[in-house]
């Protein structure tokens, strides 16, 4: 590919990310798997300043589940990950949490920043980042094939606590053909800041998952004959901590409805 | 190697780390390059609680220079990285900083924890971790050959600031034969949480290094004909931030005199 062609591909990807964010700002709601391919997507959690230290420490102690890509300081809503973006409006769907309970889903979080002007926002790596490399290697990603949301599960594994925060690990699942599991592990493993290699392959019961066809978040997907469920640490883990710890107030993205950045996936490749 | 042999090798490595820490606790002072081969070593900085958020954010924003391996909460001095270790005594040499100036080097930091009972301690990845894999690949590590401290340099590259903290990037340097630079980059790149791949190869002037034979920290090393200086982000970067930002009080390790943990280097391999 010539430099000129490469520039055009990059510009098109950034433009796709921008267009997606603008459509969400205008009110469109959709899961973001497969949106703006090649651009990194991020999980979001915003907490009052008083909780920011506990959360950043929780993330540091659980880096596979909570790899922090950016922190937006108290009251601010711009990020270095996407020029001109507004974190209060540019995610397709938000969840509002009060005293550890999900109370509402909204498409525009601006009023919540007015209610809590000191929110500190954390943007956390998302496994969607390594889905493009998986697809490029000829590994099917079922929820993209089917146009659905990735299935996510609460597990019986406790994260390492920090301050007032504790909770269980949440995982995402992709069914992978037995012959491609090693490839999927190696490819995703080269992206440690967006969850990296799988935490578990097969045997959902060992993670405390009673029914693989009934995820706690997102949509169930087909598991074909010859495929094994493969589990990756998931950026919904902070929402589990909000629930388990009874955090007084938090705003998060809705699972699968991510913040689409202007950062190419390749940035996180080691 | 049989399982039994592997267990013995591991036990010997943990024992070597423990013996090293005990000797430092007893007062021995030495640079730790090459000590307890295969066990991860860490940079240390302890700051009053009021500065902890700024520092953790600074580390998150400059992950190549400041990859956080553990945070010890206010007033505590034990770490999950080394059972039974005491962070106040088990580093061979400490530096004491007041108002951004180095005022003292001490072998026992216990009185400083009495003076500031709310110190939060950060343990940060160290490039010594990938030196064993470099040696195993037949790449000479000059400062280990010569039994000296690794040379470190302040650069003209500013880190991304956080709160009250700003400062320049500090780098370590290893001269590498031209034919092995790609290997050294790939091998170290597989250890992203201990500084990862080099930030710069050759051309010290571009980093603002006036004289490669006069490092700002550590010892000068020979650069043989056919070798190129290769630069990695360095965990002394927090000390540069302490100086540049005039931090009122901090305790750090002395450059090259690291905290030797019980964690095998391979833990940080992706």
Give a written overview of the molecule.
- Two copies of one chain form a homodimer.
- By secondary structure, chain A is of the alpha+beta class.
- Chain A has two domains: 3-126 and 245-264, 3-Layer(aba) Sandwich (PSTPO5379-like), CATH 3.40.1640; 128-238, PSTPO5379-like domain (PSTPO5379-like fold), CATH 3.30.2040.
- In chain A, 25% of the residues lie in helices and 26% in strands.
- In chain A, strands 1, 2, 3, 4, 5, 10 and 11 form a seven-stranded antiparallel β-sheet that branches.
- Chain A is globular.
- The mean pLDDT of chain A is 95.
- The interface between A and B is medium-sized, with 18 and 18 residues.
Helix and strand topology:
The structure is a homodimer of 270-residue chains.
Chain A (H helix, E strand, L loop, with lengths): L2 H23 L13 E10 L3 H10 L6 E5 L21 E5 L2 E6 L3 H6 L3 E7 L5 H6 L5 H4 L6 E7 L9 E10 L3 H9 L10 E2 L25 E7 L3 H9 L3 E5 L5 E6 L6
Antiparallel strand pairs in A: 1-5, 1-10, 1-11, 2-5, 3-4, 3-10, 6-7, 7-9, 8-9
Write down the overall geometry of chain A: globular
Roughly what is the average pLDDT of chain A, rounded to an integer? 95
The percentage of residues in β strands of chain A lies in 25-35%
SSE arrangement of chain A, N to C? HEHEEEHEHHEEHEEHEE
Q: CATH topology of the largest domain in chain A, which one?
A: PSTPO5379-like
Assembly type of the chains comes to homodimer
User: What would CATH call the architecture of the largest domain in chain A?
Assistant: 3-Layer(aba) Sandwich
Kindly state the number of beta strands of chain A: 11
Largest interface: chains, residues each: A-B, 18 and 18 residues
Question: How far apart are the first and last residues' alpha carbons of chain A, in Å?
Answer: 22 Å
Class of secondary structure makeup of chain A? alpha+beta
């Amino acid at each position: 590919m010539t430099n000129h062609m490469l520039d055009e591909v990059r510009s098109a990807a950034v433009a796709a990310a921008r267009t997606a964010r603008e459509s969400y700002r205008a009110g469109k709601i959709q899961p973001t798997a497969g949106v703006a391919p090649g651009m990194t997507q991020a999980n979001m959690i915003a907490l009052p300043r008083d909780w920011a230290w506990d959360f950043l420490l929780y993330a540091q102690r659980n880096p596979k589940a909570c790899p922090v890509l950016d922190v937006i300081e108290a009251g601010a809503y711009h990020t270095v990950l996407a020029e001109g973006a507004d974190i209060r409006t540019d995610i397709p769907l938000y969840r509002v949490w009060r005293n550890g309970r999900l109370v509402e889903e909204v498409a525009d979080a601006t009023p919540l920043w007015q209610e809590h002007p000191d929110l500190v926002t954390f943007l956390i790596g998302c496994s969607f980042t390594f889905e493009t490399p998986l697809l490029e290697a000829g590994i099917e990603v079922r929820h993209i094939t089917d146009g659905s949301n990735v299935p996510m599960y609460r597990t019986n594994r406790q994260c390492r606590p920090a301050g007032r925060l504790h909770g269980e690990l949440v995982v995402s699942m992709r069914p992978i053909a037995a012959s491609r599991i090693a490839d999927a592990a190696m490819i995703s493993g080269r992206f440690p800041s967006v969850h990296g290699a799988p935490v578990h392959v097969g045997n959902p019961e060992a993670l405390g998952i009673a029914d693989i066809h009934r995820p706690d978040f997102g949509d169930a997907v087909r598991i074909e004959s010859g495929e094994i469920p493969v589990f990756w640490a998931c950026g919904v883990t902070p929402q589990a901590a909000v629930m388990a710890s009874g955090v007084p107030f938090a705003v998060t993205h809705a699972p699968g409805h991510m913040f689409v950045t202007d950062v190419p996936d390749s940035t996180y490749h080691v």
